[in-house]
Automatic annotation (TrEMBL):
Coiled-coil residue spans: none
Signal sequence region: none
SMART domains for the chain: HTH_LUXR, REC
Gene: narL_2
Protein name according to UniProt: Putative transcriptional regulatory protein NarL
GO biological process: phosphorelay signal transduction system; regulation of DNA-templated transcription
Length: 207
């Protein structure tokens, strides 16, 4: 436990009904203090800048910025909360990706609700909780690490589209495009759009 005080928890969950259920689950347990709930990844990241948080519980398939994008954004922040990925995704790679991107734990929505509470307590105590993961698969090719949105933007970049054009095409804000591009550049190990396009074109030539 974090000292003797309740664990401050911020959550990101897209389903309104599950938001309510999670609030009740945590509020009904004196070990926790729910300080925030967001319906998408962008609002979640904004909430972290103003709310005290020991452990965050996030979904993987979130609107605007998904779980992978959240972890990428927080991985180099020294004061970021420890993250529990809580999802019903059937993708067996999600726990591996969450671990590789710096999450502290993975908990499936198929588990009893009490398992999530126990996982958050364990994470607050400094432990990591994951199902069995083949660590030999933690390193993969950079393009394989891109989210669907990042791959979409990379293709648009290679077609010469501007940030504004990409935002209009994808139906997202200009700031969100910039956020995705920043993560995209980091994953590819490049510093700008020209280098990203060159990387992409080389990868297509090798196919």
């Amino acid at each position: 436990m974090v000292g003797r005080r309740p664990i401050n928890v911020v959550m990101a969950e897209k389903n309104p009904l599950l938001q309510t259920s999670l609030q009740r689950l945590f509020v009904g347990d004196g070990r926790f203090n729910v300080v925030g709930m967001a319906g998408d990844g962008e609002r979640f990241l904004a909430a972290l800048t103003r709310l005290p948080c020991d452990v965050a519980v996030i979904g993987w398939e979130l609107p605007v910025i998904d779980g992978r994008g959240i972890l990428q954004s927080l991985r180099h922040q020294g004061r970021a909360p420890r993250i529990v990925v809580y999802t019903g995704s059937s993708n067996a790679d999600v726990p591996r990706l969450a671990l590789a991107l710096g999450a502290a734990a993975f908990c499936s929505k198929n588990e009893p609700p009490a398992r999530l509470l126990d996982t958050v307590v364990a994470v607050a105590e400094g432990r990591m909780i994951f199902p069995f993961i083949d660590v030999t698969r933690l390193v993969s090719d950079p393009l394989g690490n891109l989210t669907p949105r990042e791959r979409e933007l990379l293709v648009s970049l290679s077609g010469g589209m501007t940030n504004q054009q990409m935002a209009e095409k994808a139906g997202i804000s200009l700031n969100t495009v910039k956020f995705h591009l920043k993560n995209l550049y980091e994953k590819l190990g490049v510093g700008n759009r020209a280098q990203a396009v060159a990387f992409y074109l080389r990868s297509q030539e090798s196919l």
